[in-house]
């Protein structure tokens, strides 16, 4: 395990940061702050660990190439690790006393490690650099204590609804609206999904002759992940924990109602593949392209693959289950290990990759920015909003950009203590409801006592 920096060590790091930063430009909003002020500085090597698709890896590597040209005294050893093996690999590096300088982190382990003192307090570094919390989306901060934070989310992804335009036109349906003020009600969403669900004989889900056991096209693929169901229960004023943070909010009526409605998509209406069927379906982009599904509830990241698959697709507002429209935005952070021997240089790389200008291609396809000005400044919006690439079609600003700024709830994965442990109990319990073996309420009541052992409120 990494040793913790004591107070004097941390003070030394922060003072060093202040001296370094004051020698550089103070404008973190563009790449102009990365002019090479490194002449004569000692050469250092940083180790940076990250995950991502081949497309993401390519853009990150190209960005680091530019960083190294601007900071000629810094070389970056890049370790691209598959997401499925990431925590295991990083834990092994930490245990061997050879952690990276900075790394992608997942909230399930980032927050506990931060509380143990394994990472630098990024909030202090950003404030020393002239930035404040108000410069970033309010809900994006990975706070683990008073005035302690791993910083804002590196790159946001948000839950959205993608659809195959050809499927809608073939069914004679009007295309769904991207405007959240015109979002479908849940009943309207189910009705449209039935029209779009087609069996092998050409009957749709409204037909008395509909064959639920031989479906060629499902109306919608609705994943069972928390990020898929959370906007639905939030729309109904539900939450993962109770308001006081002491109980399981998923058992409150507002949440149960929304969760059961999702389960009914699989087991009552037959408009969405149940988890067993979904597990053997192709990736979302292929399923949309081949019209095995007409609509896909998915994270923003899928727009990269859907665009590359040349699907004739659109983006729409999520269905609104309750009285208000809600979505959720989430993502990981880049964290700097407290034992890095090069805190100044590590922060410079952190700052560079977190600047949307440095990795603009990813924000035009895969990610969404965290600084607020990228949602309010028309010139910046033009760089990544609707029409900036084939991945952001007409309606993107209404369906995603604006809601992420105005209609988003904080992600439970970085705001709820012991999130990983709680999820390890909730996931298999809900699987029983998704499969139709029991109701949502019964499934959650069966594990409520076990979950409560780990409920310790929010950060």
Write the layout of secondary structure elements.
Elements: H1 7-22, E1 44-50, H2 54-70, E2 74-80, H3 83-95, E3 102-105, H4 107-115, H5 122-128, E4 141-145, E5 148-152, E6 157-164, H6 165-171, H7 186-196, E7 198-199, E8 215-221, H8 226-235, H9 253-267, H10 275-279, H11 284-289, E9 293-299, H12 302-308, E10 313-316, E11 327-330, E12 333-336, H13 343-354, H14 360-363, H15 373-376, H16 378-384, H17 396-406, E13 408-409, H18 419-434, H19 440-452
Parallel strand pairs: 1-2, 1-3, 8-9, 11-13
Antiparallel strand pairs: 3-12, 4-5, 6-9, 6-10, 6-11, 7-8
Helix pairs in contact: 8-9, 18-19
Uncertain spans, ≥5 residues at pLDDT below 50?
Answer: 1-36
Strand content: 5-15%
**Pairing-aware structural class of the strands and helices?**
alpha/beta
- CATH topology call of the largest domain: D-Maltodextrin-Binding Protein, domain 2
Shape: globular
Count the E strands. Answer: 13
Corresponding CATH architecture of the largest domain: 3-Layer(aba) Sandwich
| Alpha carbon gap, first and last residue | 24 Å
Individual helix count: 19
State mean pLDDT (0 to 100 scale).
Answer: 92
The top level CATH class name of the largest domain? Alpha Beta
Q: Characterize the biggest β-sheet.
A: 7 strands, mixed
Helix content: 40-55%
Q: How many domains, in number, for the residues?
A: 2
In CATH, the homologous superfamily of the largest domain goes by the name: Periplasmic binding protein-like II
Specify the oligomeric state: single chain
Rg measurement, Å: 23 Å
